[in-house]
Amino acid sequence: MCVRFRLAALAFLLAGSVSGPATAVPALEMRFDVEVRGLRAGVLALHNIREGGQYAASARLESTGVAALLRRIRFDAGVQGRVEGERLRPIRYREDVDTGRRESRTEIEYVRGVPRVVLSEPERSPEPWHLDPATQGGTLDPLSVMLSVLADVAPEAACRLDLAVFDGRRRTQIVLSEPVVEGQRVVCTGEVRRIAGYSEDDLAEARAFPFRLSYAPAGNGMLQVVEIEARSQHGRARLTRR
User: Fold this and answer.
1) 36 and 237 in contact (C-beta within 8 Å)?
2) How many CA atoms does the CB half-sphere of 104 hold within 13 Å?
3) CB contact at 8 A, 111 and 88
4) Which long-range contacts (CB under 8 A, 24 or more apart) does 172-181 make?
5) Greatest CA separation found in the chain?
6) Is the peptide bond before 122 cis (omega within 30 degrees of 0)?
7) Distance between CA 228 and CA 213 in Å, rounded?
8) Which residues does 162 contact at the CB level (< 8 Å), separation at least 6?
9) Distance between CA 32 and CA 150 in Å, rounded?
10) Quick count: other Cβ atoms within 10 Å of Cβ 152?
11) In the chain, helix, strand, coil percent, each to 5?
12) Virtual CA dihedral for 162, 154, 210, 59, nearest 10 degrees?
């Protein structure tokens, strides 16, 4: 799945767990509404758990409202990995996508941080511009990046994010910077940059997708993401925390 930033494609519905004792750390849950041109297009619900230096999450995207009437979109994903400090290190990632026009499945394993595509359906030969996974060590999968972007942060860490994403064929960079205080909110300038693995047509269309991310106090001394705004090919899109 292309990692370009379009809020309709950020509408994950996560329902995951990690095996462990009955005293496991409670799962983190978040819910967001997704709007395009002011109309509700989907729901994002995060359910992620970390314990014993490990993390696990799964995802489900389904269009809702008017968007579902026009075209039903489904995106299922899951990831397991290790937590090293504040960094996520995926071990296995999988996704199952139905865009309403095309269905696909992908699984990626990571060995010492280097991704290896172990499943890609339907099978098709890589295009000349696609990247060799063996050259993409240190990158994250799309779901681990989403967890990182939406994670609560200390005020001094707000808008400080620079992550490389590899979806099995393409490399993208996600950057947050330029924190600005607006009332009780801290607003970041964000950008999704197409780095490599894209066709000339894709790069001619756009090499970067700007967005705006807003934090608000979480009540525990931390900041939490409450809104993301971006411009999609269908108009202004917004992700709003419930």
Assistant:
1) yes
2) 14
3) no
4) 172/3, 172/4, 174/5, 174/145, 174/149, 176/149, 176/213
5) 52
6) yes
7) 4
8) 173, 174, 175, 176
9) 11
10) 15
11) 10, 55, 35
12) 80
- Residue 135 in 3-state DSSP? helix
> 95 is written with which tokens?
């996704």
Nearest alpha carbon to residue 211 among 182, 185, 236, 242? 236
Reading the block at residue 175, the tokens are: 């950057």
Range from 26-30, 78-82, 136-140, 204-208 carrying the lowest mean pLDDT: 26-30
Q: What is the pLDDT of residues 19-37, one digit of tens each?
A: 333 334 456 788 888 888 8
**For the segment 81-114, what is each residue's pLDDT rounded down to a tens digit?**
999 988 999 999 999 988 778 889 999 999 999 9
Name the pTM for this structure.
Answer: 0.84
What is the DSSP track for 138-171?
Answer: T-B-HHHHHHHHTS-B-GGGTT-EEEEEE-SS-E
